[in-house]
Amino acid sequence: MLQSGDIAPDFRIPVLIGGVRKEFRLAEHRGKRNLVLAFYPANWDPVSTQQMVNYQVEREKFQVRQTEVLGISVDSIMNTTSWEREIGPFDFWLGSDFWPHGDVSRLYGVFREAEPLNGACERAIFVVDKSGKIRFTRTYALDQLPSLEETFAALRELAKSRRVAAIGETGLDYHDLPSAAVANERKTQVISRALQAETDDEIESGIHDGALKSKQASLFQQQLDLAVELKLNVVIHQRDAWADTLEIMRDYGRTVAGVFHCFGGSREQAEEVIALGHLVSFTGIVTFKNGASVREVAASLSLGEFMVETDCPYLAPTPFRGKRCEPAHTRLVAESIAAARGVSLEELACATTQTAEEFFRLTAT
User: Fold this and answer.
1) How far is CA 40 from the centre of its chain?
2) Do 232 and 288 sit in the same domain of this protein?
3) Could you give the CA distance from residue 297 to residue 265 in angstroms, rounded to a whole number?
4) What is the pLDDT along the chain (365 residues), one digit of tens a residue?
């Protein structure tokens, strides 16, 4: 059986998520999210059923910890589909290690080759960090329900690693709420808005908006709580949710510091953030022809109140706009801000580097 410290071997298997069949490859998730690989001996087994239901019930806690769950058994994908229809649907992956039979289980050292349940897999948990390294393992008795608290404790330890510089991105994003889709659909109708009553779709989408905003706020607050507990700063993402984001951040006072990344707001908004003890960060937007207002904000703030960033892979600066953004492109962002401020690139680079090193508690090399 693989142990903590080993690199998690890559594999590819068919999976279900929310009743939809897809393909999962471990390598595609490296660098993105932590993973909990939950091997279980069989579908339809009462302990396995309760285990998967528990993962669904506690889905929000996994999201807060930037973690995805993959349940794996040696049962066929057809059998797994029937089982999920009976007890699901689930918002995490259920994988089938059926063919070649037990290959993934063997790869991880949890394939059973003795009775009982010869040819099944052990009930075992592997916590894999974003780099692809196994950080926690445990095998349970076949009839033993794995402890969620034990798994969450292992995930909490990941956040204590010296490799973790901050919590995030975290925040609120209201850009693609259900009501936005309904509003866009109605724009295509040639009827005066003033003559229309609120439709059932609009009422329903408004209800869904409220539910999604509430869930986002809960996740945001849980991640801020984690940052406070671990004494880490946070990287804030907000889109079309300025007032609500600021309201939540105010509740935490000076117990946590944040950087509002990809800042594109007004000087007044930047000053509001800075007055609360936070920072802002600028992207390739400052190099765009239509980014003059953001460039002016960057020119007006004091050194030490902002950073520069890529927002990789998005928002590549001119002349690379529309292409994948790369870390090297931050030089162009810094050059644009330096020119707007009338200072040298070296002066601005030194100041923003120092700000980033202090915020993320990095040791300059």
Assistant:
1) 26
2) yes
3) 8
4) 999 999 999 999 999 999 999 999 999 999 899 999 999 999 999 999 999 999 999 999 999 899 999 999 999 999 999 999 999 999 999 999 999 999 999 999 999 999 999 999 999 999 999 999 999 999 999 999 999 999 999 999 998 888 899 999 999 999 988 876 545 554 444 444 444 555 555 556 666 788 899 989 999 999 999 999 999 999 999 999 999 999 999 999 999 999 999 999 999 999 999 999 999 999 999 999 999 999 999 999 999 999 999 999 999 999 999 999 999 999 999 999 999 999 999 999 999 999 999 999 987 54
Whole-angstrom Cα Rg for the chain: 24
Amino acid identity, residue 31? Answer: G
Residue 234: both structure tokens together: 């946070």
Residue 101, domain extent = 12-159
Shared-domain flag, residues 244 and 332: yes
Do both 171 and 311 map to the same domain? yes
Structure tokens at 117: 């349940």
Q: Residue 128: which of 247, 223, 39 has the closest Cα? A: 39
Q: What is the pTM of this model?
A: 0.79
Interior angle at CA 281, CA 280 and CA 283, nearest 5? 150
| 27/131 Cα distance (integer angstroms) | 10
Paired residues of 139 in beta bridges: 124
